[in-house]
Design brief:
about 230 residues; alpha+beta; Phosphorylase Kinase, domain 1; Transferase(Phosphotransferase), domain 1; three-stranded antiparallel sheet; 7 helices; globular
Amino acid sequence: MNLYSSLMKAIKEEYKEVSCLKQSDRGSVSVLYHKASGNRVIFRHYHGDPEAYRRLLHIAHPNLPQIWEVAAKDGWVAVLEEFVQGDTLHFLLMEQRMSGREAKKILRQLCSALHVLHANGVVHRDIKPKNVILRGDEAVLIDFDASRIFKEEQSDDTEVLGTVGYAAPEQYGISQSDKRSDIYSLGVLLNIMLTGKHPSVELARGRLGQIVKRCTMINPQMRYKSVLDLLETL
């Protein structure tokens, strides 16, 4: 029995579904309950590339979920990962905007998470409020289903994925997405936290607004070169 079949068998026998968080033609995301331990886990089952999850296997970082198991067969990917308890940034922003201090703290933590991803060649490509969970004082970046591995020899992305408004222009076939694509999304996210609006509609004021402006430049070469550069500026 291969790894994928073994994992799917274990999920069927050892776990019970608590709720389905997301369902689409591409796949599903569910919360499972482990019958023996009582622990909850996230189960992702989607059609795509498993490589991003494989590169994050067993990496422990406070701003990333722990990835426990990854298996793939015939284009389908099965992932078991840590259940992160908390509210999404999307839910919190429905109630109120954030102060500059709060927004900077969250962005610093997301930069830290992305530094790990980028160091492993992974571009997230779908940074948005729904993919950030606030676990106490920690911002946790989740959902790597749209993530891809940067390839030096490639001129553009083989598959267009991302969320309109947050995705960088190059994600729509202009060029290959890379770590600067995630920086673009961080800039949009920072502006949303501060104003509730996309920077093209209303740019945040002051120094943070200037940071947003540089993050979201159309030309990737004019953005911050890395999340460490952005982190230093913050």
